[in-house]
């Protein structure tokens, strides 16, 4: 599944985790979204509460290999779902391709965790479906890096900046294509401080693992990616 952390406004909501999609034990795909929170810490024992969140509107289809992040703008927050793969529609399935998957459409979904509303956005800069990309959320902005396009079987050196503005009315979502991305899929992302992240492992080709790591650093609104 795709996971992320979520900072709630209440003291009891300080540590929350969002879980979306993924494969179930019987190899089906899930479209469920769960909010997991820490209920209490007591004698070194941590108790969690996991709640399923029902969505209305443009609900993201069941998928895996995608990302979910949370953006914060003007005192409000919103979840952002992007990418992933899903089974081909039932009407197109045949016995030989019953479990075949395809890239999900490159739509960006905004999810309101408070009211359970989901809205999809089509951005002209996002032309191809991507899976197993790296996503980084900073304030009102998400950076999408790398990924694998199943339709073309390529790992393009993508770097997209998706900015979400949350005024009193309808949200505004825009995307900018940035230069100097890297070709990577299925990598691990770790945050080392407020302005620095590290990418470890992953693939640069179908049968070629990445043997270098990258540092991603931010200064103001500028992003820099370098090998380490």
UniProtKB/TrEMBL annotation:
Keyword Zinc-finger: yes
Organism: Tadarida brasiliensis
Keyword field: Chromatin regulator, Metal-binding, Zinc, Zinc-finger
UniProt GO BP: chromatin organization; V(D)J recombination
GO molecular function: sequence-specific DNA binding; zinc ion binding
Pfam families (UniProt xref): RAG2
Superkingdom: Eukaryota
Listed GO CC annotations: DNA recombinase complex; nucleus
Protein name in UniProt: Recombination activating protein 2
């Amino acid at each position: 599944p795709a996971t992320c952390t979520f900072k709630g406004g209440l003291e009891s909501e300080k540590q929350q985790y969002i879980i979306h999609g993924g494969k179930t034990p019987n190899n089906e795909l899930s479209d469920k979204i769960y909010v997991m929170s820490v209920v209490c810490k007591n004698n070194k024992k941590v108790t969690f509460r996991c709640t399923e969140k029902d969505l209305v509107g443009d609900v993201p289809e069941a998928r895996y290999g995608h990302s979910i992040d949370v953006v914060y703008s003007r005192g409000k927050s919103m979840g952002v779902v992007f990418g992933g793969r899903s089974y081909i529609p039932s009407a197109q399935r045949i016995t030989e391709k019953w479990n075949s998957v395809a890239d999900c459409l490159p739509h960006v979904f905004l999810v309101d965790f408070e009211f359970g509303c989901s809205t999809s956005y089509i951005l002209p800069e996002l032309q191809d479906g991507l899976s197993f990309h790296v996503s980084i959320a900073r304030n009102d902005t998400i950076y999408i890096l790398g990924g694998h396009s199943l339709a073309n079987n390529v790992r393009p050196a993508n770097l997209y900046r998706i900015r979400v503005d949350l005024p009193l009315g309808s949200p505004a979502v825009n995307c900018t294509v940035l230069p100097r991305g890297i070709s990577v899929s299925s990598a691990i992302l770790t945050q080392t401080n407020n302005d620095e992240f590290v990418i470890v492992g992953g693939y640069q080709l179908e049968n070629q693992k990445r043997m270098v790591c990258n540092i991603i650093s931010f200064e103001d609104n500028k992003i820099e990616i370098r090998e380490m």
